[in-house]
Design goal:
The chain has a single domain, classed as UDP N-Acetylglucosamine Acyltransferase, domain 1 (3 Solenoid). Helices cover 12% and strands 39% of the residues. The strands form three sheets. Strands 3, 5, 7, 9, 10, 12, 13, 15, 16, 18 and 19 form an eleven-stranded parallel β-sheet that branches. The relative contact order is 0.11.
Length: 192
Amino acid sequence: MEKKFLCQHQKKEPYYHFLNSTMIIKELNGNKPVFGEDCFLAENCVIVGEVTMGDQCSIWYNAVIRGDVHYIKLGNKVNVQDGAVIHATYQKHPTNIGNNVSIGHNAMVHGCTIHDNVLIGMGAIVMDDCVIESNTIIAAGAVVTKGTHVKSGTIYGGIPAKKVKDISQELISGEIDRIANNYVKYSSWYKE
């Protein structure tokens, strides 16, 4: 039997059709997730509480965005890939994510600020009170420790994460933009 799920939407309320959906979109303490236009939500993602996302975002399989202890804001064209977790710190550090941001598979983003045009690599961890400036790559598996300020136009990697090198314009368009644009395309396949 097909289930229909009505997703709260800022401008209109489209129906998402799923078979045996295990998606959890939950209001908590009077806060309910708010979605922009043309977003894709995988059938088994979890989005709870004070979460706001812009247009053309995609939340993939087994991803969790938990706005229960503080707010979480995502800009336009943000993709949260399979198994990634976004959370915040109770009454201290919300999570703010800019536009054109990719959060890689199994990454953890917690109580931090990520500006526009950023790639957070697979399995990377970005901790509380970090600021990741625009046009930046956090390498796969990197651990960006609490309070780290990553300057614009750099690649950070390692444990703890340190600057590896400056980023080239080719990497900005070839990786950051390409991945964000590809995820808008991939999500369109699932909406047909």
